[in-house]
Amino acid sequence: MINNIVIMNRVKSLRNVNVSGKRVLIRVDFNVPMDAQFNISDDSRIRAALPTINYCIDNDAHFIILVSHLGRPKNGYDERYTLKHIQKRLENLIQKRVEFMDDLETLKSQNVQDCAKRIFLLENVRFNEGEKKNDPEFSKRLASLCDIYVNDAFGTSHRREASNYGIADFVKTKVAGFLMVKEIEAFAKALEKPIRPTALIVGGSKVSSKITLLSSIMPKIDKLVIGGAMSNTFLQALGYDMKASLVEPDFIETAKEVLEEAKQHNVSVYLPVDLVIADSIDHPVVIEVAPIQDVLDGFHAVDIGPATLKLFSEVIELSNTIIWNGPMGIYEKSQFSKGTFKLATTIADSYAYSIIGGGDTADAVEKAGEKDKFSFVSTGGGASLELLEGKILPGFEKLDIKEEG
Ligand code: ADP
Ligand code: 3PG
Ligand code: MG
């Protein structure tokens, strides 16, 4: 079996090149959540890029260009998605002036000699239609701005776009930033050299989007804990009537196959034994705890119940490596968040190596106030999921390879 982590681990890192006097373009992922007034609600991704940016500053790069996307703009400029929203926070974090550049041409028109020691932040790269299309002409224009390309946008590394993928075809020196390396090392610790037993905890809303993950990861785990809406489909597959709960009927057979695969790999499976059920998700009047065989007509399973929490906590306490992807319930609503938040605390307080992949799961542990106690919280949502699925992430594909020995 080709191992995706081993392959991604072979890329050359920023540490292996000399940036002194060089024009350095860093692809970062500053796609951060913001409120309606454009206040950044979680700047983890900006902070995570600081080691790479500071390293280039400290090692005398001639100048630094920071390139990122923000959101999913459809037709060119859209003020909701301008990276101007990020500029101040970035300046505060690196304690240096950051010059905002509206577009590539303005940046190109700068006299290179005058740019010494300057840091530029380029406007949202997705305002250019060539970005998402991975247009080689656009990649070439971006590439012409630098001598060294550093990809540190782990959160974007499952995409094949011009600034995180195509550009590498046109730059001689292309390396991984420190965040990219750190993410791979963290996952390697959980998947390549884990202290077993290893538990995978999965939840969230869709079996369909996580099914590849379950099959490919099976040989690397000892226990599989399933909660959230994911477990509804599994429970239905086992003959329980989940009533109005979110179930994916097309995946009942797949759920049965997963349970069979688990048996073949000697993986113990833990499903909820009780659930929090509600008569409505948006305007609940009745909220109860019910054993899995007693979900009431018209009710939705919205969280794991207290007996399940106890069961899952015991599994956690007996595991040395824990990989968690997917909340245990509709954690965005306070009445339905207890299972997810308490599980977060149990994992945070355990002695296990604990790693989180998944945008909503990372958000949930942050809201639970436990984020700092996890061994590693990935900055990738989709990217970490695809990594766990065993894929080689495109963002690593075209980077230089480390010299042997
Ligand atoms: P991640 O982003 O961490 O990979 P997902 O996107 O797969 O996680 O799942 C998160 C979503 O799953 C949340 O919006 C949450 O409300 C939803 N969810 C969890 N449990 C349930 C449930 N029982 N019924 C409906 N939605 C659920
Ligand atoms: C993310 O938030 O997952 C990354 O920044 C990628 O964004 P995208 O899903 O819009 O490509
Ligand atoms: Mg999600």
What key attributes describe this structure?
single chain, 405 residues, alpha/beta, Rossmann fold, 2 domains, six-stranded parallel sheet, 15 helices, elongated, binds adenosine-5'-diphosphate, binds 3-phosphoglyceric acid, binds magnesium ion
How far apart are the termini? Answer: 24 Å
Cross-sheet strand order for the largest sheet: 3-4-2-1-5-6
- Output the CATH topology of the largest domain: Rossmann fold
Count of individual helical segments = 15
What level of helicity do the residues show?
25-40%
Average pLDDT confidence is 96
Number of domains: 2
| Unreliably modeled segments | none
Please outline the major beta sheet: 6 strands, parallel
Q: Cofactors and ligands present?
A: adenosine-5'-diphosphate, 3-phosphoglyceric acid, magnesium ion
Large-scale geometry: elongated
CATH architecture classification name of the largest domain:
3-Layer(aba) Sandwich
Which strand-content bin applies to the residues? 15-25%
User: Rg to the nearest angstrom?
Assistant: 23 Å
Number of beta-strand segments: 15
Instruction: Give the CATH H-level superfamily of the largest domain.
Output: Phosphoglycerate kinase, N-terminal domain
What's the CATH C level of the largest domain? Alpha Beta
Assembly annotation: single chain
Order of helices and strands: HEHEHEHEHHEEHEHEHHEEEEHEHEHEHH
- Broad structural category: alpha/beta
